[in-house]
Amino acid sequence: MQFFRTLMPYLLQNKLLGIFFICGVIVEVIYLVAAPLSLKYLVDEAFVPKNFQVFVVILSILIIGGALSICAGTGSDYALNKLSGRVIQRLRTELFAHMQKQSLPFFEKYRVGDLVSRFSSDMASIERVICQSFPFLIKETLSILMGLVMLLVLEWKLTLAMLIGSILMFIGPKLLQGRAEASNAKYKEAQEQFSNMIDETVKGYKIVKALHQQDRLLRRAQGQIRDLLSLGLNMHILNSLLERLPLTVLLVLNGTMIGFGGYLIFHDQMTVGDFIAFFTLFMSVGQSASNLSYLIPNLIDSSISFKRISEILNHQPSVPEASDPVALPPLDKYIEMNQVTFGFTEGTDQIKEVSLRIAAGSYAAFVGPSGSGKSTALQLLSRFYDPRQGSVRIDGYDLRTVSEASLRRQMDIVFQDTFLFNTTIRDNLRLGSELVTDAEMMEAAELARIHETLIGWPEGYDTLINNEGASLSGGQRQRISIARALLRKPRLLLLDEVTSALDPATEADINQTIQQLRHHTTIISVTHRLSSIVNADVIFVFQDGRIVESGTHQELLQQSGLYHEMWEKQHGFMLSQDGLHATIDGHRLAKFPFFAGVDLLLLQNISTLFSTETFKEGDTVVQEGEQGDKFYIIVRGKFEILKSFQSGSLQRVATLQDGDHFGEIALLRGIPRTATVRAMGPSVLLSVRREAFLELTAKYPQIFTVVERTLKERI
Length: 715
What we know:
- The protein is of the alpha+beta class.
- It is about 55% helix and about 15% strand.
- The chain contains 22 helices and 20 strands.
- The protein has a 6-stranded mixed β-sheet, with helices on both faces. It has a 4-stranded antiparallel β-sheet with strand order 2-1-4-5, covered by helices on one side.
């Protein structure tokens, strides 16, 4: 089988253990085959002639041989356990190491349940074969071969008759093997899907609760459990047939052997001792053959598991390291993208012919609407992906030619979605910086404005993090991640929406820290909050995968282009330092299309109607189908717009950020909400109730007239 051919190199690496195991098995099998043969001599040479001396000799040989067999078996078991342990150890290590070499597309293709099942159920299946099925196969095969030789010596005619009938023992399993393999594969895929569903449910329990989706998920789980039941039943029935068919054939052969053997005895062509020895030996050989049939389901299961593991081991990274990589010198001059085009899938490009250059030691920012390509550009700069066309270079070195280790040593990236390991705060901070002192660690924590928080906890820096930091707030996780990056003192620091989960005061502190670093570290920040990058040396404005504007904050405002439009949308709000209270001025309200033409004084009156609302990640602001009675303006934060479909699933159709608004139709008409709006992080909204707005319009009818006309035009 391909399975054993693939495993053979692993086994051959431990030749001495393998030889010791084989020798022990051979001794065991010789004794097992010789023991039934002794019956011939016991009956014909000792019992019938009543020769006690011959009896003592045969019995002594059996006892001594049995002792040797036990010793050989014990030694072979030890060798086998050590051999199998080393093989599984190497296989697990290779699988884990190979997974660590993979690029981002690999982890986007395989979900958590997919990979966990490879390390758990699939690896356990292979371990069972190496520890149990493989040695059993060798022992039973040797027993059959040696037994057949002895059977031919005892009575070749009867042996040939049995061999012809034994062919049936293997025809049935062979016919069922294909169906059994397909059934096993389907069952493993169903287990994998169920594992993924459990993983999703546990990680998304807040959303499940918030949207009251327990019943829908229960129905989905019940469907998958039913599939597991039917697929498992089909698999077990086929496996049972694979085991039963050889036993049935063996019963038929036993009857045939007794009949034909009796015929030979009655015609003096076989002695009683020969027949007893033949019968006993044949039963032993038949049992060995039958035992092999029990292995077939395990071998099928393991071969499928090995194919699934081989699928991972054969997966090549989409961002490979060069065959002869060069060490990247410390960043000294510039980082650039030269005519870069890239898309996550064929036929779609998120980045189109982008060229830019950022001087070493400067502070650059990427901004633009959602989906404009700014985060994709950052991932290309960090070499999580390689461009389809063009190149990304640091001081003239194409990143595809440099070693990953030398690149990572001088680069760090802080993501919007912070991940913390389930260990202490100290271990998380010193990740990749194990040689730093406690003083340096605390200095980095102070720069990230997290030190005071940490020393206030009972365990301080030795506080254990559980469930990937779920017990911490988003802001705390983000600041720990920033401190971890600062501790490594990178020459190139990439920031992906790092202040999105922070309150205004902490955001201001982090922005101040960035200003302190800017001349010693090259900083590239992706953000949608323009107020945080007004002091950047250069700002690149992305739209539809291209850079449409670039320059300083003041230069871009003067161009009156996309950046100016985005700035105007986010301008006009006042937010308290704690982020709990916000206001909006009349000039900002005038920029909304449905307030266009309303007198500024009246808009100031409308601005007083707004109340501040705060939301946490996963909170639902409005639910699809509920009655609309509020209009919302986003002061800070990011929201996803979800629509329900006939399948019962919720799908994201859009995202909204600072300065966007929703629910304006509720000002005039209390119609049901057409979509669900859910917070994607800590957020601040301004809202006005329909009743308050209508009270104001009753006092100033012209407001109602202008707003109604504008809304009618939009609808």
